[in-house]
Specification:
This protein is α/β, with parallel strands linked by helices and 457 residues long. It is built from 17 helices and 20 strands. Strands 1, 2, 11, 12, 13, 14 and 20 form a seven-stranded mixed beta sheet that branches. Strands 7-6-16-17-18-15-19 form a seven-stranded mixed beta sheet. The longest helix is centred in the C-terminal third of the chain and has 19 residues.
Length: 457
């Protein structure tokens, strides 16, 4: 009997297993597919390693950086060569306002200079400075806050596209407290959202020269490779858990194609739609709540062009608001964003399609997706060249959607598991943060809880 079995080999599960391993806990990790890493994947395109999903992580949240230190990778980390991004608005690519926090502007002159909003939109945003207090008591959506205080244009042309680029979601249905806790915190200082953000930034006193993101020159997959190397034989691939049952003498038995695996404690880190069936007979309340969490599907198309055939982009990429009707939601100009990708003769673009409520790309052929995105790149960004090589990566049901009230639902899942299935813990991107640092933090917390349970305390 192992002390702890971890179900799921994404970044959360790997971090859980690593934490237990470093604490000399007998841990086993069961992964249903033929590789670990989950939604982190890096592969070669035109002879260069280019990420197929996340290519960076936030530095201001320390947990991913701490993991890299554990894995002796910090000396290799790099920051984007440029952080300047643009947004499609009023028929043109326009620079994102420099003085904004998660899309919320805190300098109206800077906002006006960007050209993102119309005159009417600017006037409506300015009303925030004179409106009285009107905050609701319950968790609200991000869209509710932004539209109420700053108007529809700020929401549709700034905040919505920025946050949609993070979770492929609809900010009108995104929990403020659970989905964007940093914005919830920044909005709590003053009834005016503009003044509140200003006060928040003054209090945090962040070094403007410090990097916001870090990445690895060999791709984020390098971190997964290091985790796999560290854990080695503790990982079992192609071992989906098909069922589990409580043992009369304590602990749990998990059934896999290779046979049963016994554990004193279990940490389930796979997507909630995969976790739900495992708990249906043991905690119907938790199982149903897990099944109710929605996911968005996304498609990434990475294109390699000859530099001689394509004009260099001034910035790290651009965003497309939902209301524009395009298949494309964003384009990361990877060879401008990352110096190590911009040194050679090839220009790399990573184009994304799909979000909550729009899964058209998932039902199109690769050829049709590429053709449509090339057509849109042509008239949005002036890209007329034919790519040398193209890679299409599909991520079905990849990004969990945090609806208003999300944290209460998560607390209900955790309470139900504690009551119905002692020794079984669930965590991951669908719980308390879907960014890489948040997943690492959640994996560590789950590891400590499972270790304590397995030790009898």
């Amino acid at each position: 009997m192992a002390d702890v079995v971890v179900v799921g080999g994404g970044i959360t599960g790997l971090t859980t297993a690593l934490t237990l391993f470093h604490n000399d806990v007998d841990v086993r990790l069961l992964e249903a597919s033929d590789r670990v890493g989950g939604k982190i994947l890096t592969s070669y395109l035109r002879g260069t390693l280019v990420d197929e999903a996340a290519d960076a992580f936030l530095v201001r949240e320390p947990h991913m950086l701490e993991l890299c230190e554990q894995l002796n990778l910090t000396q290799d980390l790099v920051s984007p060569a440029t952080g300047a991004a643009k947004i499609w608005s009023q028929g043109a690519l326009r620079p994102l306002p420099k003085k904004q926090f998660l899309g919320v502007p805190f300098d109206l002159d800077d906002l006006a200079a960007s050209g993102v909003l119309s005159e009417a939109g600017l006037a409506r945003a300015a009303e925030d400075l004179t409106m009285g207090a009107d905050a609701p008591r319950a968790d609200e959506s991000v869209g509710s806050l932004i539209r109420r205080r700053l108007g529809d244009e700020v929401m549709d042309r700034l905040v919505g596209p920025l946050l949609g680029g993070i979770n492929a979601g609809d900010a009108d249905n995104l929990s403020l407290q659970g989905g964007v806790p940093r914005l919830a915190e920044a909005a709590a200082h003053d009834p005016s959202l503009i003044r509140s953000v200003q006060l928040h930034l003054q209090q945090t006193k962040r070094d403007p020269s410090a990097p916001i993101f870090n990445g690895h020159p060999n791709g984020t997959g390098q971190i997964i490779d290091a985790l796999q190397e560290r854990l080695k034989t503790r990982i079992a691939l192609n071992q989906p858990v098909t069922g589990m049952e409580a043992n009369p003498a304590g602990g749990w038995t998990l059934h896999t194609p290779a046979g049963p695996t016994n554990a004193k404690a279990v940490v389930i880190t796979c997507p909630t739609f995969a976790a739900s069936p495992l708990l249906a007979d043991h905690s119907p309340t938790a199982s149903q709540a897990l099944a109710d969490i929605d996911y968005a599907s996304v498609t990434f198309v990475t294109m390699a062009f000859d530099k001689a055939d394509i004009q260099r982009f001034d910035g790290s990429g651009f965003l497309i608001p939902r209301g524009e009707g395009l298949l494309m939601t964003a384009c990361s100009w990877a060879s401008a964003k990352w110096a190590h990708l911009g040194d050679g003769p090839t220009e790399y673009l990573r184009v994304s399609a799909g979000h909550s409520g729009d899964d058209r790309a998932m039902h199109m052929s690769d050829e049709d997706v590429v053709a449509q995105l090339l057509e849109e790149l042509s008239w949005v960004a002036g890209v007329e060249a034919t790519p040398l090589e193209v890679r299409v990566t599909r991520w079905p049901r990849a990004l969990p959607q945090y609806r208003p009230g999300h944290l209460e639902r998560v607390a209900g899942i955790e309470e139900a598991l504690a009551t119905d299935t002692p020794g079984v813990f669930a965590t991951g991107a669908a719980f308390r943060g879907l960014g890489l640092p948040a997943c690492v933090q959640q994996g560590r917390i789950a590891a400590h809880a499972a270790e304590a349970f397995a030790a009898g305390g």
